[in-house]
Amino acid sequence: MVVPTGWWRARDEEPAEEPYDTGSRPPDPSPLPASLRPHLIPVVLFGLLALLMCAPVLPAPTTLAIGHEGNDVWNHVWGYWWVAEELSQGRLPVQTEQLAWPYGGSLWFIDTLNAVLTLPVQAIAGPVAAYNASYLFNFFLCGVGAYALAHQVTGSRSGAVVAGVAYMTTPHLLGQAYNGISETCSAGWLPLAILAMRSTFATPTVRRAAFAGALTGINALASWYYGLFAGFYLLAMLAGGLARRTRAETGRSRRRRRARKEPTSVPIQWGTVARLLAVGVGATALVVVGPFSAFVSTMGADDAMVTRDPAFVWSTLIMHNMTDVHALFMPGRFYSPDLKAVFNEDLIVVVAIGHLLLWPALLGAFVARNRLGLRWLWMALGFLALCLGPFLYIGGDYLLVSGGWVPLPFLAFYKAFPMFSRISHAYRFVQGATVALCVLVAWLVAELEQRRGARVALVVALFLGGGRAVESFVATPAVFPLPVSEVDAHPVFSALDDGAVLDLPVGVPVLARSRYLAGQLVHGQPVVYGLNDPTPPLLYHNRYTAYLLEIERTTVALLPARMPWLDIELGRHHIVQEGLRWVVVHKAWYPEARLRMTVEFLDLTATAVFDDEELRVYRLDPE
Questions:
Q1: Which residues contact 455 (CB under 8 A, 6 or more apart)?
Q2: Angle, CA of 506, 511 and 517, to the nearest 5°
Q3: What are the Cα distances from residue 511, in Å, to 143, 346, 517?
Q4: Per DSSP, what are the bridge partners of residue 105?
Q5: Which of 172, 174, 143, 166 has its CA nearest to residue 66?
Q6: 146 burial type by CB count under 10 A (0-12 exposed, 13-18 middle, 19+ buried)
Q7: Which one of 23, 466, 487, 543 is least enclosed by Cβ atoms within 10 Å?
Q8: CA angle centred on 235, ends 232 and 239, rounded to 5°
Q9: 352, 375, 327, 372: which is closest to 431 by C-alpha?
Q10: 583: which strand partners?
């Protein structure tokens, strides 16, 4: 094992004891390598904490899904199912005819990596269990990843445990789990990628560079945001190396380090660095190029189901996904922006750092030996500056100075780099800052261990780790226990076949309406709605379905005595010829008068085949 003496350079630990004489001592019966045994207890701890975080779904993991039912849960569970279906048919998951019937469209599921990793779970227990398994795995990986990075940086197991617990209970991750956005919880790959890069700089070999590059590629596949964050950390390592070399070349700097008894470093061989970078970047490209090309091509296609138009991204950044400075520090259920109040959405924006992470981390930055903590502090501050978005937003509004909004560093990146013009969630940069802050907390514990002994460090570690978890769970905007959604489709859906399905009503919130996708997990037939599609144009353009929309939106309580039956029948005939076969009325979502009118109209124009308290199902037969 190595313990770094700089941002990226390491020295060997004390030499290990000589191996036991196997002739005088019995062989070690433990199946674990000796180097892993000290880490067994932390790993078990992270596993138990991950189980606690996923506890609400454990009673029924095949039907209960993590996340609020009004958010993205349904889209993500559907994505796991769809990726598995496409791969089982020997097709790449880049085009679907299951949504936006009758056209379909190009689509890259944003959480394809986890959908692939959990394929064995899905094969055994279904897509809901696979979706839940991804959370369990990724919460656990967050703990292990932050633990491994902090242990490499500080050499303290107690400090590394605190870092692992602090990272896996990050309020932002809990908020994203509440929203049902599973890919954002794949944050454990980021500290592992940083660890691999640091190890490559400490012991530069082609194998390490290739491994670091591949791991960085996997991190990018988990979330394009985290791929970008890893890139920033790599640039910081290179900049730190350049600064160290510049200082090493001055005699005054050398004399100062000798006087302080600081370790001297060998200047970096930039030719070696260039070769290792080429190997690492090449390994990253091998992992990322294919999926990233598919992602870009599907979003740029004429039939793209998900797009990132710069105008849309910009309006989203400044009108929906703002980051309030107060939200970083305010305890309790403080939401700004409050998406429920402003947009009637159940999504929550959680960027709280947590005071039991922030202040110990700041202290760790200044007590770390050789000023190494300050480098991590600068990284945390850089990410926090970017997470604030393009303009300064404080106390629920943009700050005005001289008649204009105050610009922030994100705005410069947005204008300078095309990649930033596709970033609609600047607040996710808080996760990059959290990595650095967790390392700094580990530094604090490591220094206590050096100065006050292991027992004092252990007590402080227990306080910081336990306090951090409790604070994240009960004293931040994150919701804990996590809510669950029941993805248990009605049995009647299994009888729907041989044609497309239209679920009614149409006029419900878009994210909440995505729960209709639970039925498709059972019947497997195409559905009319796309992803985040307010109202499919097809429903307006066809006279039969347009009349169903009019019934939903009318203020009268009865069908008119005279109706445009010729137009209605022509529209019905046309859409049946196109392939629409089933209309499913979800009764609970209708006001009583609208439900009565809808049922009356469908009774006249379709064949009712099923009815109970929840659903009324109609079949559209060709004439």
A1: none
A2: 70
A3: 31, 9, 11
A4: 96
A5: 174
A6: buried
A7: 23
A8: 140
A9: 352
A10: 502, 618
Q: To the nearest 5 percent, what fractions of the chain are helix, strand and coil?
A: 60, 10, 30
Q: Give 535's pLDDT tier (boundaries 50, 70, 90).
A: confident
Q: What is the pTM of this model?
A: 0.91
Indicate if the pLDDT at residue 265 is higher than 60.
Answer: no
| Torsion sign over Cα 52, 47, 137, 212 | positive
Q: Provide the pairing of β-strand 580-586 with 500-504.
A: parallel
Is the model's pLDDT at 22 over the cut of 80? no
Arithmetic mean of pLDDT, 286-290: 97
Match 């929840």 to its residue by tokens.
614
Question: 177 is written with which tokens?
Answer: 């789990």
Q: What is the DSSP pairing of strand 607-611 with strand 393-394?
A: unpaired
DSSP string covering 419-482: GGGG---GGGGHHHHHHHHHHHHHHHHHHHHHHH-HHHHHHHHHHHHHHHHHHHHHSSSS-SSP
Angstrom distance (rounded) from CA 502 to CA 272? 61
Is 56 strand, coil or helix? helix
What is the per-residue pLDDT for 312?
A: 87
378-382: long-range contacts (C-beta < 8 A, 24 or more apart)? 378/236, 379/232, 379/233, 379/236, 379/432, 379/433, 379/435, 379/436, 380/433, 380/436, 380/437, 380/440, 381/433, 382/232, 382/433
* Total number of residues shown for the chain: 623
- Which among 623, 581, 576, 585 is positioned nearest to 603, based on CA atoms? 585
* Identity at 333, one-letter amino acid code: R
The pLDDT assigned to 213 comes to 97
Tokens of 298: 């599907």
Q: How far apart are alpha carbons 92 and 96 in whole angstroms? A: 10
Neighbour count for residue 608 (Cβ, 10 Å)? 14
Neighbouring CB atoms inside 10 A of 13's CB total 10
The whole-angstrom separation of Cα 235 and Cα 423 is 20
Residues 6+ apart with CB under 8 A from 270: none
357, pLDDT greater than 80: yes
What whole-number distance in Å separates Cα of residue 607 and Cα of residue 519? Answer: 20
Integer Cα distance of 531 and 128 in angstroms: 18
Tokens found for residue 225: 């945001």
Contact (Cβ atoms closer than 8 angstroms) between residue 357 and residue 173? no
